[in-house]
C-alpha cells in the first residue's frame, strides 16, 4: 500500500537532512512525499508594521523555495517508487499540518530537530514539541540534525506496562519493523521489586501482540533519570530508532511539559518515533 509522508520544512539544512533520512528509510516503499511550508511558521518577523506588498513578496518567495525544494528532491532521488508534492499555506504550522494529515491521508510526519553537539542530551525545538503534543491523528518521527541513515535493525520500545496498547497504537511500530525486518526491544525501568498483576497481564498481552515479530523484552534497575537510562540502553545495545506511545500521563507527556523540557535532555543519537494514543 502506498505511503503518504509529510515533510514540514523551513528550508533549513536541518529540515533537508530529515527529508533525506525519510527518502532512505522508505527507499523500498511506494510513497508520496509532501513538502509542507507554513509561511507564518518560517517567515516570522520582529517588525511591528509591514506592507501587504511585502507580505505578498515574502509569500511568493516561500512558494518558489518550496517548488525548488521539490525539484531538488527529484534530482537527488531518482527512485521510481517515490513521488513528490508541495503544500503551501499562510496559516499556522499546526493548522496547516492538521489539514494536510486529513486531506492527504498522511501516514507519517517526519521532522528534523537539532541536538546539542557533543552532549548526551538535546532539547527538542519548540515547533517539534508543539507538533508532537498537538497532532493526535498521525505518528511523528523526529530526526536528529545531520543524522546518517542506518537501517533500523534494532528498535527500542520503552514501556512501564501500566496500560494496554491497542492494535492501532502498535500499527506504526509494526509497519516500521516490517521495513527492514527489525527487532523490537521493549524495555521497562523497574521502579519496584516486581510487576503488579495488571502490569504482568499487560506485558503478556504485548508479547502476544508482537508474537509474529522478532522481539526481546528487557528490564533495567531504577538507577538514574529515565532519560539517562534510556540513553544508556540505546548506546549499550546499538538501538537505531526509539519508539514511544504518547498517552495521558506518559513519560513523553511529562517530558514535554514546561519547564521540564528546558532542563531535561533526550538522546540525540537516533530518530525518535512518537505514536499518539
From TrEMBL:
Ranges in a coiled coil: none
Name of this chain's protein: Universal stress protein
Native species: Psychroserpens luteus
UniProt cross-references to Gene3D superfamilies, sorted A to Z: 3.40.50.12370
Span of domain UspA: 2-144
InterPro entries tied to this protein: Universal_stress_UspA (IPR006015), UspA (IPR006016)
Family classification: Belongs to the universal stress protein A family.
A Pfam family reported for this protein in Swiss-Prot or TrEMBL: Usp
Amino acid at each position: 500500500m502506498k505511503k503518504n509522508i509529510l515533510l514540514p520544512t523551513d528550508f533549513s539544512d536541518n529540515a533537508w537532512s530529515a527529508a533525506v533520512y525519510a527518502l532512505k528509510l522508505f527507499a523500498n516503499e511506494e510513497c508520496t512525499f509532501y513538502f509542507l511550508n507554513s509561511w507564518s511558521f518560517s517567515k516570522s518577523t520582529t517588525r511591528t508594521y509591514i506592507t501587504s506588498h511585502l507580505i505578498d513578496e515574502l509569500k511568493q518567495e516561500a512558494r518558489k523555495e518550496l517548488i525548488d525544494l521539490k525539484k531538488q528532491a527529484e534530482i537527488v532521488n531518482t527512485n521510481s517508487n517515490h513521488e513528490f508534492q508541495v503544500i503551501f499555506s499562510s496559516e499556522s504550522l499546526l493548522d496547516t499540518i492538521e489539514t494536510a494529515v486529513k486531506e492527504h491521508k498522511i501516514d507519517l510526519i517526519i521532522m528534523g530537530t537539532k541536538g546539542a553537539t557533543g552532549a548526551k542530551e538535546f532539547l527538542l525545538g519548540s515547533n517539534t514539541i508543539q507538533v508532537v503534543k498537538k497532532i493526535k491523528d498521525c505518528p511523528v518521527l523526529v530526526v536528529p540534525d545531520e543524522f546518517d541513515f542506518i537501517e533500523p535493525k534494532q528498535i527500542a520500545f520503552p514501556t512501564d506496562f501500566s496500560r494496554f496498547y491497542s492494535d492501532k497504537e502498535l500499527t506504526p511500530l509494526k509497519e516500521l519493523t516490517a521495513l527492514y525486518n527489525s527487532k523490537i526491544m521493549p524495555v521497562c525501568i523497574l521502579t519496584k521489586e516486581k510487576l503488579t498483576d495488571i502490569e504482568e497481564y499487560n506485558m503478556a498481552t504485548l508479547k502476544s501482540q508482537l508474537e509474529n515479530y522478532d522481539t526481546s523484552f528487557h528490564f533495567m534497575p531504577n538507577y538514574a533519570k529515565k532519560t539517562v537510562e534510556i540513553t544508556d540502553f540505546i548506546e549499550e545495545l546499538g538501538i537505531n530508532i526509539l519508539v514511544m506511545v504518547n498517552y495521558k500521563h506518559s513519560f513523553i507527556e511529562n517530558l514535554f511539559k514546561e519547564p521540564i523540557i528546558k532542563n531535561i535532555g533526550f538522546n540525540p543519537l537516533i530518530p525518535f518515533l512518537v505514536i499518539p494514543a
